[in-house]
Specification:
This protein is mostly helical. The chain has four helices and no strands. α1 packs antiparallel against α2. The longest helix is centred in the first third of the chain and has 35 residues, at about 5-35. The radius of gyration is 16 Å and the shape is elongated.
C-alpha cells in the first residue's frame, strides 16, 4: 500500500469518526429542544439518555479525543 493510499484511508476514518460525533451532537441538541417543547414526551428523553450513553462509551473515546462528560455538560449549558 502506498503512503498516499494509507493516508487517504486514515483521513477517511478520521472524517467518518468526526461525522459520527457531529451527528450525535446534533441529535443531542435536537433532543434537548424537543424536551423543552414537549416536556413529558418519552422519545426525546430516551434519545437524550442513549446519546449520553454513547458520549460516555469506549467507542466515543476511540472516535474522539474529547471528554464525553464535558461534551454533555457543555451541550446542557
Amino acid at each position: 500500500m502506498t503512503t498516499n493510499t494509507k493516508m487517504d484511508k486514515e483521513n477517511a476514518y478520521k472524517n467518518l469518526a468526526a461525522e459520527i460525533v457531529n451527528k450525535a451532537v446534533t441529535n443531542y441538541k435536537r433532543a434537548l429542544e424537543d424536551i423543552k417543547k414537549e416536556s413529558q414526551a418519552k422519545r426525546p428523553r430516551n434519545e437524550k439518555r442513549e446519546i449520553e450513553t454513547f458520549f460516555r462509551s469506549q467507542w466515543f473515546e476511540r472516535l474522539s479525543d474529547l471528554d464525553g462528560e464535558r461534551v454533555i455538560n457543555k451541550l446542557n449549558e
